[in-house]
Structures are given as C-alpha cells and as structure tokens.
C-alpha cells in the first residue's frame, strides 16, 4: 500500500501538483513584507477565493515551502515559513484574554488566578524560545548567501524585538490567524522565488537527514531512515494536527532491540515517508479521490495519468449516494450488460487502488485496502448488481443503486443515523473480492422490514438486498433458480409460497373493503413470517369472510390463485428460520409487484 502511494507520487510529480522532496504544501495566511534593510513594513494577506458546493469563502493560500517535518513535541523551527510565534515572537493574545476573562467571570480563587498567570508566563517564555530558535536557524541557513533577500531577513531577525509588536501589526494579523503560517517578502517579491535561497533550503534538508541509513522496505535502497513519519490530515475524527499511518509509540510495538528507536523498527526511508504522506494528504484534499462517510475516509485512485481518465468518477458513483455521477454509473453498467465497450477514456488494464481509513486516536487504521485492474473492479461491481437485480415499480428507472444508498435501508427512514462504517467497509470488501455479504446486513434489513409500516412494507432495495444476500450467502440451502428477479410461479419453496399466499390474502381483503387503511399486513405480517402455523389458519378464516363480499368472477379468480399456490404447501410450518423468513419476504414482494404490474397493464390498455 505504501509502495503504491510512493509510485503514484512519482507518476504525478511531473504535473506540478505535488511538492518535490524536501518541500511541502502548507497553508499560508500572509507574508511579512520587509524592506531591503530588514524593516518590517506590514503584513500582506495571502488568501484565495475557494468555492465548495454553492459557497465561496476565503482560505489561506496553499504554497510550496521547505518541508514541515513531523514534530512530536518541543521547539522546532522551520526555514522561511512558520507561524507568528516563531517569526515574530508573538504570543496568542486572544488566548491570554480569554483565560483572563474566564477567570474573572467565574470569580476564581486567588490560587486559580495565580495558576492562570503562571501558565501565561510559561507561554511567553516558550514563545521567546521559539523566536530565538527561528532566529538561529535563519542565521545558519542564510549566512553564506549574498542575495539582498537573505541579508534583509538576517537584518530583520537582528533588529526585531519580539516583546514590542506594534499595534497596527496585530490588527493586520488578526486574532484568528495566529496559527497560520507566514512567509517573507523582500522589496515586494517572494523570497522563496529566489533560486539561491531555495538551493540553501535543499542543502539544509540533506544536512539534517537522519544519520541512520538502512535498507528501505519500500524502495529497496539504502537511505536515511525516517524515525517519525509525516502526519495525515483531513480524516474526520482524527486529531486536527494530523495522525500517523505508521507510528511506534509503545514498547509492545518495538522489536529487535530498537527500544525508543521509533521508525527503525520497520525502516522506511525519509524519501518514501515523504512521498506516501504527501500523496495521501493530496488525495484527502481532492474530492475526486476521496469520500468521507461517517468516521471512514475512502481514498481511491487509478494508476492512469490520462487527463480524460474517469475511473475515479465511476467508482465514486458506485459508492456515494450524493454524487452527481449517478447517470454515469447507469450508463457504464448498461453497456457492460449489453456487451458494449465501456468508454474510450478508460483503460481496463490499469491498476485501481481503494483504501478505507478510520481514526484511532493519534493514529490511522487501515480497515480496507484493495488493488486490482479497473476491469476486474467493474466485473465485481456488475456481478454484485446482477445478484441485487429485482423487479421494481415502474416509477423507478434506476437499477444500479450506489452502495451507500442501499445502506440507507438499514436505518429508520428520515433518521440522521447512518449505517455503521464497519458494515459499509465489510459490504464493499465483499463486493470487490466476491466474498460473502456481511450477516449483519441481512439481519438489519429483516429488522427494518419488521418495523416498516404503511404501504411499503418491503421496499424494492430491501428486497434486492435480501435476494442478493440469499443468492451469495445461502446458495447451499436455496437453489439459484428459486431466487428470481421477478415472480417465480414455478417455485415450490414453502416460505416463498407462504409469502405469495399472504400477498393474495391481502389483495382479497383490499378488494372486499375498497379504501381500507389498515390491512392484515399491518397486524399479521411479522407473525405470519415467523410462525405461519399460528397465523395462517386465522388468515384463511378471515379470507373466507372477505370472499363472500366479492362477486362470482373475483371469488373464482382469487380461489384459483390461492389453490395454485397452496398446492405447494403440505402444512403450515410451526416456525421459520431467518433465512426462510427472507424467502417469505421475497415471495410477498414478488407477488405484490405482480399485482401492481397487472394494474399498470390494465390502465395502459384503458388508455389505448
């Protein structure tokens, strides 16, 4: 997986979207504008207009700067780009004010006030240490340069007094921008545009590489080993500063005597660590390559570098219930069903990768990783849709339902709850690998069917899931011929026939009492599904009373329908297993849809 990310980084690097080794893309909110003599003249805001959905807002500019390496704790200065604490020696004034106001508002004791004042004093002392570290770093970095920009920055650090920040600078900086990064401009020009200073930054990175060199487990080259891997940002539920995909923070994870050696336990070179974290962070900022559902972040990419590549769009359409690419999925699957080429913009032989990442405190867990050709992925998706194929009402024109749309059927309609991410990743894994569907999916759907009220006792998607599950997981108990797309009048499966009988009995009741609001479905469906021997004798007795209200033609028709189905049932079973209850629900759904299909045909004939 890490090797795949490193390979993708090397393929996409020439496009200019990713930073080169030793550099990183960081959010920069402003530039310290210096004169050639090192005098700070002001702060230039660096914000871009960003559109997300229908909203447009200002966001700090993404800039390529010398890499911000992973830091566990302590004071660590970065060259030419850091926050106001390091470059200006500026404390978070808003935090101090908030602490004071909180202490005064809560009428804190003298001891609490002293504690808060002590904490503020510590913050100020640490801020001075940060500024001093940044000053020393830039003096080492730029002392050999003769460029005007380098001399201006050195002059700035030599003359700047961190405790004497002018008021106008505080206003320009703003309270909300204390944590964002700042860069240097000299005489109106960005310092990082100077090739000589960029070269000095590269030299600095190489000089501070790990002294420990080992065989990299990813690249196979002997290179400096990364003791700490970069942070992965953008995963919901993880720490806002980022979480690690690879980390060793406990003795139980360390081996071969590498106690407190962090990354030496599983040597990955600094280059490979940089490449895979950069690639993953880039994917997590691009809607095309990732999707967040609950606490699970799905990251997917194809190895194709073609600009017309739409592999990610197709996969996202198969996964997401809120994508605009629904028609694309229908089109692709229809072409596969008809045996036509999918698209000229798709290379079916290119490898496609899927990861499911979930937060785990300061780390990230990989719940799913899949790699195969995109052609194999489409075949797996199509096989899934074939299993889920079911007769639908005429108003439903779609047949290929996205995974998360299906999972909505496991929760109460209108509820804000979502299906557990473990269930979604398990279902996706089953679809991609051709494995069995999770048992929890079937159990959840059966629970929802029991709880359903109103006309839609069984929704088309619930019936599709039941059919797909029984076809994939219970093929040793039920033959494939029994699990048809639409009504199977040849089936002698007793639970299936019982479901059909229940549907006919409901139809008899509705014909005898037109406009009835509550039918036997509302009161007896769950009992008939679980314990037929208890409920069906009562239902048959009720149907006799209903039949008496019908005319001879209807009575003959319904009696004949019942007798045809009941001929397959010797006796009503005492109890049905959960699998049999699934067949009962399927039989009821098929028979009911057949009834509506007949109505539609009659209406069409009348219109003609």
Please outline what is shown here.
The protein is built from 20 helices and 15 strands.
Structure description:
The protein is α+β, with helices and mostly antiparallel strands. The protein contains 20 helices and 15 strands. The strands form four sheets. Strands 1, 2, 3, 4, 5, 6 and 7 form a seven-stranded mixed sheet that branches. Helix 16 (about 495-510) packs parallel to helix 18. It starts with a helix and ends with a helix.
- Beta-strand level of the residues, as a percent range? 5-15%
* Rg from alpha-carbon coordinates: 33 Å
> How many strands in all?
15
Q: Can you tell me the residue ranges where pLDDT is under 50 for at least 5 consecutive residues?
A: none
Biggest sheet descriptor:
7 strands, mixed
Shape: elongated
Quaternary structure state of the chains depicted: single chain
Kindly state the percentage of residues in helix.
40-55%
Whole-number average pLDDT? Answer: 84
Distance between the termini: 61 Å
Counting helices, strands and paired strands, the structural category is: alpha+beta
Number of helices: 20
């Amino acid at each position: 997986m890490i090797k795949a990310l490193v390979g993708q980084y090397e393929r996409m690097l020439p496009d200019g979207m990713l930073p080169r080794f030793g550099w990183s893309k960081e959010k920069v909110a402003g530039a310290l504008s210096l004169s050639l003599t090192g005098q700070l003249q002001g702060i230039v805001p660096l914000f871009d207009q960003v559109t997300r959905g229908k909203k447009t807002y200002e966001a700090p500019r993404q800039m390529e700067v010398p890499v911000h390496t992973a830091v566990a704790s302590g004071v660590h200065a970065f060259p030419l780009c850091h926050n106001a604490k390091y470059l200006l020696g500026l404390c978070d004034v808003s935090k101090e004010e908030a602490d004071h106001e909180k202490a005064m508002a809560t009428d804190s004791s003298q001891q609490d006030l002293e504690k808060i004042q002590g904490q503020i004093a510590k913050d100020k002392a640490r801020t001075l240490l940060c500024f001093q570290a940044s000053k020393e770093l830039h003096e080492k970095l730029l002392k050999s340069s003769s460029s005007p920009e380098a001399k201006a920055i050195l002059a700035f650090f030599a003359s700047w007094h961190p405790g004497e920040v002018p008021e106008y600078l505080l206003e320009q900086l703003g309270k909300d921008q204390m944590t964002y990064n700042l860069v240097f401009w000299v005489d109106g020009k960005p310092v990082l545009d100077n090739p000589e200073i960029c070269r000095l930054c590269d030299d600095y990175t190489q000089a501070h590489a790990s002294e420990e060199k080992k065989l990299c487990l990813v690249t196979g080259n002997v290179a400096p080993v990364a003791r700490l891997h970069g942070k992965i940002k953008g995963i919901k539920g993880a720490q806002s500063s980022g979480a690690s995909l690879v980390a060793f923070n406990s003795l139980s994870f360390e081996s071969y005597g590498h106690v407190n050696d962090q990354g030496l336990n599983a040597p990955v070179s600094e280059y490979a660590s940089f490449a895979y974290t950069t690639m993953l962070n880039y994917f997590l900022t691009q809607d095309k390559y990732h999707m967040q559902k609950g606490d699970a972040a799905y990251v997917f990419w194809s190895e194709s570098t073609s600009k017309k590549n739409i592999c990610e769009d197709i996969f996202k359409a198969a996964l997401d219930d809120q994508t605009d690419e629904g028609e694309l999925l229908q089109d692709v699957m229809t072409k596969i069903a008809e045996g036509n080429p999918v698209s000229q913009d798709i290379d079916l032989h290119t490898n496609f990768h899927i990861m499911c990442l979930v937060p785990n405190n300061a780390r990230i867990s990989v719940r799913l990783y899949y790699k195969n050709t995109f052609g194999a992925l489409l075949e797996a998706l199509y096989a899934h849709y074939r299993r889920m194929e079911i007769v639908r009402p005429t108003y439903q024109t779609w047949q290929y339902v996205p995974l998360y749309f299906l999972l909505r059927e496991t929760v109460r309609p209108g509820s804000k709850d979502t299906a557990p991410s473990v269930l979604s990743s398990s279902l996706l894994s089953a679809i991609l690998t051709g494995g069995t569907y999770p048992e929890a999916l079937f159990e959840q759907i059966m629970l929802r069917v029991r709880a359903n009220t109103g006309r839609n006792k069984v929704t088309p998607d619930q019936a599709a899931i039941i059919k797909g599950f029984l076809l994939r997981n219970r093929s040793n108990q039920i033959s494939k011929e029994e699990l048809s797309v639409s009504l199977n009048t040849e089936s002698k499966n007793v639970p299936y026939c019982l479901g059909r009988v229940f549907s006919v009995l409901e139809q008899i009741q509705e014909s005898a009492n037109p406009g009835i609001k509550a039918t036997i479905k509302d009161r007896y469906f769950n009992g008939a599904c679980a314990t037929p021997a208890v409920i069906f004798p009562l239902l048959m007795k009720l149907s006799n009373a209903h039949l008496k209200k019908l005319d001879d033609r209807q009575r003959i028709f319904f009696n004949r329908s019942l007798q045809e189905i009941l001929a397959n049932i010797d006796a009503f079973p005492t109890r049905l297993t959960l699998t049999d209850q699934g067949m009962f629900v399927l039989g009821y759904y098929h028979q009911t849809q057949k009834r509506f299909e007949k109505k539609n045909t009659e209406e069409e004939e009348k219109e003609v």
